[in-house]
Amino acid sequence: MSNNLPKVAWIGLGIMGSPMSENLVKAGYDVTGYTLEQDKVDRLVAAGGNGASSIADAVRDANVVITMVPASPQVEAIAYGPDGILENARRGALLVDMSSITPQTSVDLAKNAAEKGIRVLDAPVSGGEAGAIEAVLSIMVGGEQADFDAAKPLLEALGKTIVLCGPHGSGQTVKAANQLIVAVNIQACAEAVVFLEKSGVDLAAALDVLNGGLAGSTVLTRKKDNFLKRDFAPGFRIDLHHKDMGIVTDAARNVGAALPVGGVVAQLVASLRAQGDGGLDHSALLRSVERLSGSQV
Question: Which stretch of DSSP H or E encloses residue 141?
Fold first, then answer.
């Protein structure tokens, strides 16, 4: 592809990474992808990208390296060590980590990368699988203004609301707050659903009118069908929301912020996971309320 757009390496082609990387290909970027499952690499190649056989192979010629993996341990695994990004990317490259991890991991990564002449942004996202596919993600960014400005055109191919929130780690802090609000919102919706159904109300009608008023939310709009159909195919897995609730409760504790309701919802997410529902969508918090209300789930 002959264009003056930066060459991109994409590490991590999961539920989010696959559609996001494909959106960059559609926008005209030269994207080389690497992930653990070969069929996911093949999917990117079929969409017009390139496949790599290792992280080193993917990042060698890249101007921008984007990472989208599940949690802090995976970010550290792909960034550090002889086969990692920092040892194999070129000086001056921009590393944009779009994973949702602890703010401290992002701060440390930026510091270690700077020693190699690699610039870093933490740029976690909100909007789930649907937002990734439709390229309407909300992207919260931490890092330097100049690096944000450089990355912005590329991020605009992935999302709609793109905001620099402060220094390294700030994107992760805002993402943690996002996950707190989403979990509490889903839990409130789930409690309402069980209450409405046990009261014999037409659930579809009730959710429509609720969503038109002050109780309406993006969560309810996106998850209404999951509640109605009891369809919990994962757009965002409980396992990952469990990880995120750990991040937000821990980070809040470190800064001295009380999260009384967040703490309760974190326990409900943990209990859902302990009951074997970790692989389901986070709207499956409904199953937890049903169990507590005496329904056979």
Answer: strand 137-142
- Whether 175 is catalytic: yes
Torsion region of 74: left, alpha or beta (phi above 0 gives left; psi -120 to 50 gives alpha): alpha
CA within 13 Å, CB half, 282: 33
Q: Give the pLDDT confidence of 238-268 residue by residue, as tens digits.
A: 999 999 999 999 999 999 999 999 999 999 9
Backbone angles phi, psi at 24, to 5 degrees: -70, -40
Decide the pairing of beta strands 137-142 and 125-126: antiparallel
- Summarised one tens digit per residue, pLDDT across range 266-291 is 999 999 999 999 999 999 999 999 99
DSSP assignment string, 42-62: HHHHHTT-EE-SSHHHHHTT-
| Active-site position among 40, 175, 224, 243 | 175
Instruction: Identify residue 280 by its one-letter amino acid code.
Output: L
pTM of model > 0.90: yes
- As a whole number of angstroms, the distance between CA 18 and CA 165 comes to 26
Which of 132, 141, 171, 148 lies closest to 24 in space, CA to CA?
132
Return the closest-CA partner of residue 27 out of 51, 52, 10: 10
Question: Exposed, middle or buried: residue 112 (CB in 10 Å: 0-12, 13-18, 19+)?
Answer: middle
3-state secondary structure of 162: strand
Token pair listed for 159: 């999302």
